Amino acid sequence: MSKTLIAERVAEIKEKLRELAPDRRVSLMAVTKYRTREEALAAVAAGVDILGENRIQEAVQKWGDEKPSVALHMIGHVQTNKVKYGINLFDSFDSVDSDRLAEMLNHRASGLVRVMIEVNVGRETSKSGLMPEETLPFLASFERWPKLQVTGLMTVLPARQENSVEESRRIRRHMQEMVDLWRMCRSEGFPWAPMTELSMGMTGDWEWAVEAGSTIIRLGTFLFGPRL
């Protein structure tokens, strides 16, 4: 997609965000998996707030020489043996869901590292993330990892199977469950967990997510078009 079309898409989303959430800030993350550096930089120039990468090796190839001017988040599954390659590249690791990964991030960090806990709110066997009931105990355990700061929760919502009223209600229930869980975690007041962010909502459901209370939406296909 051309730079002009990317800019138009970003402007369209930004305007819609102002309509849906006039009294609060919602950050727009451009998901740049399999996208070129030029496409990603076009999105940055157009005004996206964050870039999200799914694979450490791809991100290193794309950004290893010069990081983008906006925050770079790791949103895909992270293998612990790859942490050393990304620890100084990413501004946030948004898919932390195990003691092992948290331990490795803490071990490799030279300073404070921002992370988010990934929650599998739909309880889907094909997806990573903690079950909702596991999230608060895991958050409480971060006292063990003094170099990690938990800024919030991230989830990949179940895909809509059909355009029915019941299916819409199901997705919205999952969204509300995430909002309630996020608020509960924040209310604990752990010093290592400001919990200011809820990363929820993608191309097919981002408007509902913003209405529910999401603070970060993650868009790829809408901004860049289908991958060739």
UniProtKB/TrEMBL annotation:
Transmembrane segments: none annotated. The modification N6-(pyridoxal phosphate)lysine is found at K33. Keywords: Pyridoxal phosphate. InterPro entries: Ala_racemase_N (IPR001608), PLP-binding_barrel (IPR029066), PyrdxlP_homeostasis (IPR011078). Its cofactor is pyridoxal 5'-phosphate. Pyridoxal 5'-phosphate (PLP)-binding protein, which is involved in PLP homeostasis. Belongs to the pyridoxal phosphate-binding protein YggS/PROSC family. This is Pyridoxal phosphate homeostasis protein. It comes from Sulfobacillus harzensis.
